[in-house]
Amino acid sequence: MTRKCEDILNENENDLMNWTSNEIKVWCDEGLIPEDLLHAANEFELIFFLIKNKEKLQKHYRHNTKTNRYQVLPYPSNDDKAYELHIIEMKSNKTFKILEKKIDFEIFGTIKIEIKAKEFADWIKEPLFKKKLSNEKIREVKEFISNNSSFSPQDLIDFIENSKKEKKTQKYRQSGHLVDEKLKYFKENQMSLFDLLTPETKRKIEESQLEVKAEGIKLTTAENKLIHALNLILHEKSDKNPKSENFYSGNVPSQIVEYGQNKHKAAVLKFKPCELYKAYMGKEEYSGADIAYINNILYQLESKRMLIKYDRIKKVKNGNKTETLIDRIEDFQSLIKIILFIPDLTEEERDLLDSGKNEIRENKGEFVIALNPIFTDQIDTKFIEFPLDTNRRLIIAAGGHNKVTSSMHTLMEWMLRDLSAKRYKTEMNNENLPHMLGLENCLKQGRKKRLQERIEKDVQAMINLGLVTQVEKKPNTTGGLKWVFHLNKDYE
């Protein structure tokens, strides 16, 4: 007999029927109680049986107990209240307590909840509860259950639907050109990059004395997290009306900078350091070590130069006709320019700052950062949307802060770009996938097992995110294998 049934029978506070486990054991050993009634699923039927056969059982064996104070009255099975037991106080003949039969019910394939037996039909008919949810959504549902002691099927449905509606507005944009440049990949033995560049771009690369092997924006895991954090702050600090000339232009007057052999606007942001740390960490808490690490990544990113090369396509009216024109953008630049701004320092605070007291910087300081024009180029028409808590979600999906990899970021951005284009099935040849995810080093080192494990973890993280619903490996047209990713078109 389960503890739950025993609690009902032996509840000291209410002295319900005064049956003990010992009595039930004796009755069962003597064959007076059918064994199948002792199964957990039949505990309510056991109570009915004990009530119905009370006199017969107690004549056979009755343990010394207090005089019964209450009587349990079950309703007939064909009654609407068949799932209730009414506890009647014998002296007053009034209902003292009502017990409702409850059963375990599984929803979303992983969560078990206790529901009222009489509501089973209402729960089982809802198709939503048979679906599988992402790990993130499962966590939200569990939190809802823990915060609500009683709820109906409709209450849970309303919570999930309202959660979806709220999150539809909680997204920020990244320029499609920025994402495209991050996703560029190249194999060996391609035509020399230098042969394809303008003299001005070649000069900038030569003056930098840096070795440039490929075009595009190549970032470490930490740098890409920082890019997401800056895009989130850009969203929060900008005019979000697409018709405004200041759309996604930051909260400080734009700077005019050289970009692709022409002049372009660069969005400028001013914000407290804590805003950056929270956006990067994906949570409110951060440590002094986190501050030092993020600041280091920020200055590291500023010193890094990228070979940016893409085509900006635009529609231009020419009389009664509309022509498609192309601007070729090509430059060798850093992605950000930092100005550290600390206003209104007292002499004492200035001296403390000079002595290395970073709390002054934290409390009174502000970052002013100019973003490369690629952050906002055509962001009104060519953009990818990311959830506001992208960094936090990826940390959870990966299983921890230190388990997020650069290839996870890259795979996520491939998936989101395809979703943005309403492509719900993405195919990637197995031989190309390591290049697409920036895992060339594993290829060069011949670490096939390590490479396969890395890719499998990245793919699992996308499933945990809820971006990918199904993954298949199929033969491709060249005799090799291809990965087929089925994307969640309802991803929010």
* Overall domain count: 3
Beta-strand portion reads: 15-25%
Residue stretches low in confidence (pLDDT < 50, at least 5 long) are 8-17
Question: What is the CA-CA span between the terminal residues?
Answer: 45 Å
3D shape: elongated
User: What oligomeric assembly is this protein in?
Assistant: single chain
Q: Write down how many β-strands occur, each being a DSSP E stretch of 2 or more residues.
A: 16
Summarize the amount of helix as a percent range: 25-40%
What strand line-up does the widest sheet have? Answer: 7-8-12-11
Radius of gyration, taken over Cα atoms and rounded to an integer in Å:
33 Å
Overall pLDDT score: 83
Keyphrases for this structure?
19 helices; 16 strands; alpha+beta; four-stranded antiparallel sheet; 492 residues
